[in-house]
């Protein structure tokens, strides 16, 4: 085990501690200290004392006191306790190695990771859609093209061509050890929906039927997908066979957003209503009436639905009854961004504000005056919110403490899209060209990698 000198460590998050002893121990050797008090105790009691240390910096310093302390600190139970304190859920392998990797990733999130900048591979046009996994980053553009990059290196792999209009929505699924095949669905201005084998870069099906731009889509699994269009309809497809299952009729204006949970689809429209659909029968179960202006975003967890509207309100609905459970007030203009996870809803508005809501009480528990212009992208997990806006800025927030952690990247002209997972984040933006006086930007992609354990020893990252 390497030397772990971490006197000046600022941990990514310090959980509440019930420790009856100080976080920082004076471990310096002094002439009057003739006896190692831990060595005089039974090992079980010595480990119990060390288990009260919940800061890795203190544990790392303790590791340097003596060989005996070093041997105690190698005990897996200490690292298991640290995992529990920091809410790192390990199910397999060494708790020590797992904790150190997770702590390293959390530190890199807060301080900045390795950034790969991709400023080639995009032709002129705006970016409309983004999705990535550990292998592929897929970008949809309004120039008819879908660009595919290697997520790790940033190198362009292929361009998927065939759409005759801008690509406005895409999603892919698959791509794990149990299911390596990736199915990509795309739709746009040419009214067609295309099904691709992403690994091979091959077109499987062209799904025709919409009579106007496909504005939104969601894949449930490798069999079922739903698309929504400016033609006021939604369509349910068997994407494995390339066949139409249902046409969902009822909206009176463009379908702007859609979400899926099991056998339920929900849709929001510029007609100011949302609808709940049964995917098996194709029937509308409930019409959700209450908003007084266009609905721009909709999310569901299968129990409740949240809708955001130009009327500046968020409404929460029951999936079972279609009843409006609550109207969430606070935003002062369009609510165009929502994400729902567990009992937490995060909203972003054209007022530049982020709000965090508790779905058990329907109360706002955090509010951030986040940006100087409309929030155009947001994503959150149990630690962070990442947001982007028309002010050209991307910001990282501490969702629990309600504070700004850092500016995530240098300001740009436009931030197109953002997305992140546990170890990476992708930002697509337009920056000013340095090689021309013309007021024309170029599309740049940044891939932020926070898993630095492959490039450094884990002990070093705790310094």
TrEMBL record:
WD repeats: 160-206, 207-247, 248-287, 288-327, 328-367, 368-407
All copies of domain F-box, residue ranges: 35-82
Region annotation (Disordered) ranges: 1-25
Tagged with keyword Metal-binding: no
Keywords: Repeat, WD repeat
UniProt keyword rRNA-binding, yes or no: no
Protein name: F-box domain-containing protein
Organism encoding this protein: Mucor flavus
Lineage of the species this protein comes from: Eukaryota, Fungi, Fungi incertae sedis, Mucoromycota, Mucoromycotina
């Amino acid at each position: 085990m390497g030397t772990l000198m971490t006197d000046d460590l600022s941990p990514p998050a310090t959980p509440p501690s019930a420790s009856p002893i100080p976080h920082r121990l004076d471990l310096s050797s002094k002439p009057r200290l003739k006896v190692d008090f831990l060595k005089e105790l039974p090992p079980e009691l010595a480990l119990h004392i060390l288990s009260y240390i919940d800061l890795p910096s203190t544990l790392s310093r303790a590791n340097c006191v003596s060989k005996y302390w070093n041997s105690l600190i190698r005990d897996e139970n200490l690292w298991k306790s640290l995992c529990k304190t920091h809410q790192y859920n390990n199910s397999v392998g060494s708790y020590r190695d797992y904790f150190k990797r997770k702590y390293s990733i959390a530190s890199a999130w807060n301080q900045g990771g390795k950034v790969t900048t991709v400023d080639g591979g995009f032709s002129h046009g705006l970016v409309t859609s983004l999705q990535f996994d550990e292998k592929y980053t897929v970008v949809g553009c309004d120039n008819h093209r879908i660009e595919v990059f290697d997520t790790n290196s940033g190198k362009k792999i292929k361009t998927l061509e065939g759409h005759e209009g801008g690509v406005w929505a895409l999603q892919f699924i698959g791509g794990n050890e149990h299911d390596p095949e990736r199915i990509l669905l795309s739709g746009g201005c040419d009214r067609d929906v295309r099904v691709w084998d992403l690994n091979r870069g091959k077109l499987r099906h062209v799904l025709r039927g919409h009579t106007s731009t496909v504005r939104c889509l969601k894949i449930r699994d490798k069999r079922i997908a739903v698309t929504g269009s400016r033609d006021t309809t939604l369509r349910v497809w068997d994407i494995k066979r390339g066949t139409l299952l249902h046409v969902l009729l009822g909206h009176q204006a463009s379908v702007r957003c859609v979400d899926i949970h099991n056998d339920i689809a929900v849709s929001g429209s510029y007609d100011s209503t949302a609808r709940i659909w049964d995917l098996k029968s194709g029937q509308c179960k409930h019409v959700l009436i209450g908003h007084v202006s266009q609905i721009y975003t909709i999310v569901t967890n299968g129990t409740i639905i949240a809708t955001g509207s130009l009327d500046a309100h968020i409404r929460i609905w029951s999936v079972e009854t279609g009843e409006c459970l609550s109207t969430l007030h606070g935003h002062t203009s369009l609510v165009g961004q929502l994400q729902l996870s567990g009992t937490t809803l995060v909203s972003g508005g054209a007022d530049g504000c982020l709000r965090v809501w508790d779905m058990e009480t329907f109360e706002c528990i955090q509010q951030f005056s986040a940006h100087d212009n409309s929030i155009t992208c947001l994503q959150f997990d149990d630690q962070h919110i990442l947001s982007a806006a028309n002010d050209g800025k991307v910001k990282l927030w501490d969702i629990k403490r309600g504070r700004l952690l850092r500016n995530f990247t240098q300001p740009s002209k436009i931030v197109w899209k953002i997305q992140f997972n546990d170890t990476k984040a992708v930002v697509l933006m337009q920056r000013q060209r340095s090689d021309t006086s013309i007021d024309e930007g170029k599309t740049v992609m940044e891939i932020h990698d926070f898993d630095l354990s492959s490039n450094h020893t884990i002990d070093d990252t705790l310094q």
